[in-house]
Give the backbone structure.
Amino acid sequence: MNQKHTITLIPGDGTGPEITDCVKRILSAAGLNIDWEIMPAGETALKEYGTPLPKETLDSIRKNKVALKGPITTPIGTGFRSVNVSIRQELNLFACLRPCKIYRGIVSKYTDVDIIIVRENTEDLYAGIEFEPGSEGAEKIIALSGGKIRKGSAISIKPISKQASERIVRFAFEYAVRHGRRKVTSVTKANIMKFTDGLFFDAGRGVAKDYPKIEYEEKLVDNMCMQLVQKPHLYDVLVLPNLYGDILSDLCAGLVGGLGVAPGANIGDGIAVFEAVHGSAPKYTGQNKVNPIAMVLSAELMLEHIGETQTAQSLENAVAAVIREGKHLTYDLGGTAKMSETADAIISKLK
Ligand code: NAD
């Protein structure tokens, strides 16, 4: 009997439950022995528990150390913060990993893209330190700025620490070593934000000295956007502070076929949550229509993480074969297949 794994599963909102059902079916067909602990988060949890992120769900992830998460709708106007950001912060999932790889058969201007985005998840403008116009905090900072900030401005703070910057760059180098990658590119806007982004580059240079076999380079984010559009094949592992990481991971997802094929992982010390980059696509709920591949590839990252490397490889090969054949693709990849037909096709290619 295969090793048994207990994994938290958050079906999520909108199309999330249909997509996670497909993934469960595929992983079971791949012969994995997984005991899924199904936990609520998002709109469904809000109705039942009065909070979109119940303590029980966080406890389950802490206990099992691994979760697969469907997309969650961020309730607008309820005063709740994004559940996704809260999960990352509560569990200190400091690294966001987003592989952007083009598979043969995807219609794209590019043929040779295989980029790993490593995004810092805990700091930067996402820290949630904001001051409303006219608030006491905003007025104090305006006074401190010595007239540089206009009266009545709203203010967001961008904290970048040496510890978190070194931790994320080390994560990127360790990933590069484990996966036989050749280069790590650190990306910021340090020519303008000399202290915050400058510190991120400094941390990168320091950590890079411990990895002499891997090339290290620095790029400014504006130039990086152009480089990625013109010559993405030159890039390998990118490491970025939170906001640039968010924007560039969508840019890179666009290079390789879009949200339907963009997987992701949020990783901390000993805990990891795997999820597709896309949201809950609420307008397609219950239509068996959206692409399950991004979530299947997220599950593949999860299998690698829990040591099921052979099954992870066979799952990726099956997805690559389905994309290459092009007969069972969903609407976003130019096909007419239903979500469940894509899942069936993946199962039929498993070896
Ligand atoms: P979205 O990713 O849900 O949709 C953007 C576009 O991509 C839509 O046209 C959608 O139909 C399409 N799309 C999304 N997933 C697809 C798939 N698997 N296959 C094919 N097409 C797909 O983004 P949005 O519309 O901005 O957000 C909807 C909700 O999802 C919001 O409440 C947002 O806060 C939430 N969201 C959640 C996450 C997450 O849980 N990690 C991420 C992003 C957005």
Q: What stands out?
A: DSSP finds twelve helices and twelve strands in the chain. The longest helix spans residues 162-178.
